[in-house]
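subagent[fold] <- orchestrator: predict structure for attached chain, return tokens only, no commentary.
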Amino acid sequence: MRLVPPRHCAVCARRRIHQIVSVQPKWNLQRSPIIYHGPATLEKKVQTLHNVTWNIISAAQSSEGTPDSAPIAYSDDDLYTLYRDLIHTDSPSHDVRASHSKETIKEEDFATLKEIEARLSRTATIPGNAENSLTRRLSVQRETVPTLTPPITRSGRGHQRVLDVIESAIAKLQALMASLDTALSKVDHEPIPALATIVSKTEWLSVVRCCVYENDVDAAERAVFLMQKAGLTISEEAVNQVLGVHASKGDTTRLESLMHRILSGPPTETQRDLHVKAYLVRAGHHTPSGFPDLGDSARSVFPTGALDVLHHYEASGHFAPIKSYTRTISTLFNVQTHPSSDPRLGQSAARAHAWDLFAHMRYVAHPTPDAYLYAMMMRACGSAGGRVEPERALDLWTEMQESGVEPTRGAYEAIVLVLGRAGKGWLSEGMRLAREMRERYPERERNQRRMWCALLEGCKRVGDLNRARWILAEALRSNTSEDGGSSRSSSVDAKMLTHIFHTYASYKPPFSRTATRLVDTASHPGAPGQSEACASQTELPLQDQLCMDPTPTFPPLPPQTPSDVLAEVQALFDRILRDADSNTIPISRYLSRPDQGAYADDPLTGKFAGVELRPALVNAYLSVFYVHATVERSIEAFRSLFGTSSQTGMLEGDAHTYLDALERCAVAKKEERGAMLSWAKEVWAEWVRIETKAGSEGYNDVGRWARMVERAHAAMRRVLLLNEDVDGALSLLRTFVDGYPPKAVLPFEVGVPSSTTVDEDPVATGRGTLTSAGLKSPTFSLFAKPPILSTRVRLTNPKPAHPSSSSSLLPIPTTAPSHSVAKPLVRLTSAVGPKDDRVPPIIGFSDVELLHHRLVALRRTKDVGYVKWVCEAYKGLLRQRRERVLKGASTSADVDVEDVD
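subagent[fold] -> orchestrator:
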């Protein structure tokens, strides 16, 4: 007959196991209070309460012994700190992390990791097969002996060792609880969460963060799964830590797998944002490298995967946060047309889709954008390379204020940038908003570089050198230690100096030698000395005038003559070169003032140490010479920087460097044409090298590069024609037509004769396809509009295949075309669609008008006919290409997807 232990014995046994396994701190009221500087965990807050209580008890006991003692007084700050830390116990780590730096949190996490290892190592090493163990005695009653886990395998890394110890402790505890449940199966009892007492929730979060610090995402996932195994409710922050690692790596497969295994309900806003971020990062991994000679760096590609995730979340009823839409719109604005990208999903399509997504977001998910998104859209109104829209930016600015959104510094900088790029009529409004921002945000220690650059955008377009020099002085002054500039990044960078040089180039000095009226010295005998001084001043060579004063000065009065402009610009550029890294740039070859002692007491010393000599900065510097200097001086400055055909220069130019030089040669005066011809031939040789390299990399049909090719060839033809080399200009035109033939504008068979029998199914013809309609309605894959750009109006986006399943909350986008592709429901772009930015180089009549006139004057009828044929060939095929683009249907075979124009 077997004896069944009483009910109270069973409950006591389970409580005993709970006490053995759980390691909880025991408060000792007899020990002295612990000095504590700010609570970091819930246990420390309880310890703080214990310390305060102990002080009160001790003071009360001492006051009873001394009746004349003064009462204990606590300040308001002490009481506020105590109750603030004790009341907010629902999320104890949130307020602490807000006040502590990341380094402090990291140190606390690793300290917690060591505490866990030291505490659980003793528990994990208790012998499981001891004769007097409770497990053994209970198992003997049931005639079963549990199988415990093998000994712990020590790992080399700290967080892995802790995970091994935790996993071993959980396994031992599960075995003990299984044995107890088997022995007391007939006794009713309440379950005690013994597994949850091994490690607290705060300690679990520290373990996960330590795994993330060590960049061990496998260990972080293991920690989350151990929390699930221990029966704990996995905290959202722990899951977000692991998802954040996957999102930063663009590993969408593992991120979605973890969400399927861990999440029991729909993802939270943070998790949905990480899901979208993962697809954006993954799209960035496929970003092709840019073309350095074009000044193009690696840019983003069209984020179709992230867009599908956003629209699928909308269809499931769980909208992504506004931060996800902001990420996606920012990526769309950064898309650059590349030879390997989809022909219809280039920069123009991406920019148009960004505006469409902005309108769609406000219609579907978030009616009121935040200040950051408003600032991004306002900045897009004045983006470089596109049409500046100051009215649209001001509409967004007014709408933001009427919606109650507080303008941030970024919003002010964005609107001032757009107004500056708009030109003369808008610069005054930009200056007013800049003063308003300074009154609202008077912090002088912040870096003002973005605002300075925004104002300089307007200064260089109107030639306002006075304001540009003042901005440069303010930026240099903000770098001083008393303004806090030494602890932050420098306010003066290459971009700002580029704007400064452009302002010098557009500046028109008030004194012009050609507009000066000569006065007879005989009629003014009282000023002979003054006239002689002026004559001696004008007779000095230009180089001597530039080097008369060994110390660079910037007087309050702006430059009055072109020589003064060049003197200031050269002094500024010399200072930039001296502060540059001399180990990588041999500046001694170019400096106009090699005497180092002249700059010993210069207050600008070291101000430009962080400026990088980029090609854009050097091109802006040379543009000042192209406008204000003679041709000889311009050639000298160019060759000193970039060298000649027989001598290597100190810098290497890009495509814009040689294009600017060719266009300067194309506008040479009659007396300058001889010197310009030899220089233009040197520059043309370098341009041909870059053009050949770009063609080998497939940039011939990239719109931005194609327009530069057209400008370079037009400039070189004009240089040859100005020097009476008609045959050379005509030969250059034939070279252009051979390299970029008219058929490249429409690189397929335009049609088939009507008598030709064509099957009903499309027949592949090179890169395009022809239908049975022949010439009437050909559809080319290059001009077929992607489904995501379809302008068909829909009221709802397609829903997931199985809305009731959990997988519908985690959409996995597909790149295959489908008639049910998700797309914006509301668009701001017209039904015509974005412009075609893949047109190869072409020839218009304005490009060869001068050549045509010379050939007509020489009565070269055959050559005149050739020029006319070239213009008409490009014009006709360009018209056909435009028709194909405007009538391009969706790539889907479904008739319902055809665009409604």
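orchestrator: received. Logging for downstream: The mean pLDDT is 74. Residues 158-183 form the longest helix (26 residues).
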